[in-house]
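Section 5: illustrative case.
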């Protein structure tokens, strides 16, 4: 994903939290996931060398990357 695509994607989403090197955005406008073309629920951007996620529900994940950050697109089951 290039810088323009990433900037456009993030500008369309609602920021929900930043904890350490992990940023989370809510997809409130049904943007399509770049990996599977289905609307996703949240974008989780992991910027650290190692990041830990505590999930409280079962999710399907699509994965991408931008400038060394891991992008997780969540889909509720």
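Designed sequence:
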């Amino acid at each position: 994903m290039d810088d323009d695509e990433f900037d456009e994607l993030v500008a369309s989403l609602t920021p929900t939290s930043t904890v350490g090197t992990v940023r989370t955005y809510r997809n409130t406008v049904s943007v399509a996931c770049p990996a599977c073309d289905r609307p996703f629920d949240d974008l989780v951007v992991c910027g650290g060398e190692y990041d830990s996620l505590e999930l409280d529900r079962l999710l399907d994940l699509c994965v991408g990357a931008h400038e060394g950050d891991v992008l997780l697109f969540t889909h509720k089951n």
